[in-house]
Design brief:
homodimer; about 450 residues; alpha/beta; Rossmann fold; 3 domains; 17 helices
């Protein structure tokens, strides 16, 4: 069966449409989110209780998860999952600890000392979506770097189920990272609560985490006025770079594992080959997809996502890398079944959220437990954004200390520049220090 | 004369209003900017020529600055300014080169190799405001880190004067940094041109630079849809932490040098002292301000800004630092005339864009030539944002490479987590690689 629309040697002018993401109309969404944000800003907690009833079908008596609920969660997480979370936690923590920057120091001229002071963002908000699966993996991906960065105040919001409960695995994963301030709030209203604050929730400085289109739109709206965000995230996506020598079952499984994320996920394939060979390989991939599909759940998501998927074939390796750069995938799997070729392609990649190299680096590894972060730029944002990392939870404050000698040395430069920019008070601040006036 | 409204021992509940920035009403602004963005998106270059005529009073025949104009600029920059720019360039480059991150590598488990690949953002846009002074300093502050980061494509936009020219010092500073693609476009329309692209200008991946409220609003609007920005910047501001032992002339000169930036700049002062002593010191500062004001230009800006300035007095050093953290100043000058005290305060500061330590570290030094970047978070964004640095022009792409052994080691963890998150295709992507199917 043909799951992937095929394109041989796509031309530059076709790329914008061939590499386009599934778009959702946003006019109505913008207004709907604006009204949710306004309600939380005006009514505070009352709006949060109302939205929990309306959107989550939950009648809450408290927004905050109690200490008892957090303690009880431990007993409700199966042992094999606890063990798995411990491995994932260890790997994520190790890699994110490696990312901690040192503060540079430089004496740029006699008496002119420059440095950067590394400081954690003081209060961060983590959003963990609800939906079909309990995202304890996302909990680790956000709470571990916050812990590594030593953020003193971390709050987590996630929607309750209709009984007013949060999945114990999310509470347990949060506890592993020392997060104790957890609220049963989901959707755009959670973003509003964290951005503006309410009587129950103190506002945060930066909001992290994925979410549906309401959450994303809410993050974008607050980011322009009062609260920083990690990135404007959208539906998840993968691009696989393969060759006819790649194992078609592996390629098929990677496309499918992306496609199951949601109805609007996107799975793209680039095969480095001449047309005949390339299309024959696509036949094998599609056969493998058909075989595997029969064994999988979430068929509705899989089929919906695959409808927007595409396969490209081109004989030139550099052009294949260029296609990957033009798409700027959240996840880029380079599986050419030849290490040297894979490394050559890696050198050329400049736009990607995270790269998975070789036949055994499936996206699932990075999604869960290898240690890289799975909160990554989608929708082409990999052209300008990095994924979430320890950096995302830190600030770098520049510090300068000039001695009198240092200022004297710089003064001729400063006086000329201030003069030419016609800023006489800037000039005066230098002159008065060196003139000895009091 | 009383330039600074005085507050002794301000209480927590007063801080939101006492530390508030000068707000501008933004409803009309939002719509006006939206229509400018839409015009550029729909009409392309034609809209840019029209806006140049309308806003800059310039009849342009070409949007792009010619090679000849760039070459001619060199002859029109005075030698003393060339020398000053050379010193500034050297210092800024040295400090920003020091900021280049290495890409970490970590073998987190046998056969599980993780790393980060550092890549420059491929095409960046720098905005240099026009207005009353030629901002060659801002040109260096944006173009030097782009050069240090090795961004392959750098474009600069700045409004022309009414003769259709760009100030030669801006062209010369851009040339120093290897920037050759320069356009005579200002305001919100410049942001639109860089974000969307037009027939003359290829779209960029990220936009940097300060600007008036139209530019800032335009940056915020495009940042939600298609183009990253450095930060949502607003009017410039300073907070000075002083003690009665500080030199009141220095303090006065720093407040004034901030106040001359624009009509809506803000200059705040915190004095660590008992009320009587503190107010006596404020008298001396205000006397010095009066003396200095008489010698300065830009009186209109100075007086307008000072109307929104405030002075706080508190005897407790820790409380003074807390006020600085609550304000989260773009520029924080710690000038207590006692090195030990200054260092203690420095340790407590967690929210600031850039810190100036000691009596000789005037803001002018960092504005121009010490080497730190002067593009900094304003309006309280220092709670979550760092200033522009080499990092701002780089991306960090995570890379993972698993061997078969590596995947086997991780598999139990991955299978349990995928199972519990009910993602069967994620599970399958692991299982199929280890089952040996083809």
């Amino acid at each position: 069966m043909a799951y992937l629309a095929r394109f041989y040697d796509p031309q530059d002018e076709q790329l914008p449409s061939l590499l386009a993401r599934n778009k959702t109309d946003s006019e109505a969404l913008t207004e709907q989110v604006r009204s949710i944000l306004a309600a939380v800003q005006e009514e505070g907690d009352e709006a949060l209780f109302r939205f929990a009833k309306q959107f989550d079908k939950a009648s809450l008596s408290e927004l905050r998860v109690s200490e008892k609920e957090i303690l009880d969660a431990e007993g409700r997480v199966p042992d094999d999952l606890k063990q798995a979370l411990a491995v994932a936690y260890h790997n994520i923590k190790a890699f994110h600890a490696r990312q901690r920057p040192g503060g540079e120091q430089l004496v740029v001229a006699p008496g002119v000392e420059l440095s950067r002071k590394i400081v954690p963002i003081q209060r961060v908000g983590l959003y963990i979506p609800g939906g079909t699966a309990p995202l304890f993996s996302t909990t680790l991906m956000l709470a571990v770097p916050a812990q590594v960065a030593l953020c003193p105040s971390v709050v987590l919001c996630t929607p309750p189920d209709s009984d007013g409960n949060v999945h114990p695995a999310i509470l347990y994963a949060a506890s592993m990272c020392g997060v104790k301030e957890i609220y049963k709030i989901g959707g755009a209203q959670a973003i509003a609560a964290m951005a503006y604050g309410t009587p129950s929730i103190e506002a945060v400085d930066k909001i992290f985490g994925p979410g549906n289109q309401y959450v994303t739109e809410a993050k974008i709206q607050v980011s322009g006025s009062c609260c920083a965000i990690d990135m404007p995230a959208g539906p998840s996506e993968v691009m696989v770079l393969a060759s006819p020598a790649s194992n078609p079952s592996y390629v098929a499984s990677d496309l499918l594992s992306q496609a199951e994320h949601g109805r609007d996920s996107q799975a793209m394939l680039v095969v480095c080959a001449e047309q005949t060979q390339g299309f024959a390989f696509l036949d094998r991939v599609e056969q493998a997809m058909e075989d595997q599909l029969a064994t999988l759940g979430r068929q509705e998501y899989l089929l919906s996502s695959l409808a927007g998927s595409r396969a490209f074939v081109h004989p030139d390796l550099k052009r294949c890398a260029a296609l990957a750069n033009a798409y700027a995938a959240e996840h880029l799997i380079i599986n050419m079944n030849d290490e040297k070729t894979e490394n050559r392609v890696l050198q050329w990649i400049v736009n990607a959220g995270s790269i998975f190299l070789g036949p055994y680096s499936c996206e699932s590894a990075g999604d869960y437990a290898s240690g890289t972060n799975h909160t990554l730029p989608t929708n082409g944002w990999a052209r300008s954004y990095s994924g979430v990392s320890t950096d995302s939870f830190l600030k770098k404050i520049t510090v300068q200390k000039l001695s009198r000698e240092g200022l004297e040395g710089l003064a001729p430069t400063l006086l000329v520049m201030a003069q030419q920019e016609k800023l006489t008070a800037h000039r005066n601040a230098v002159a008065i220090r060196l003139g000895g006036e009091r």
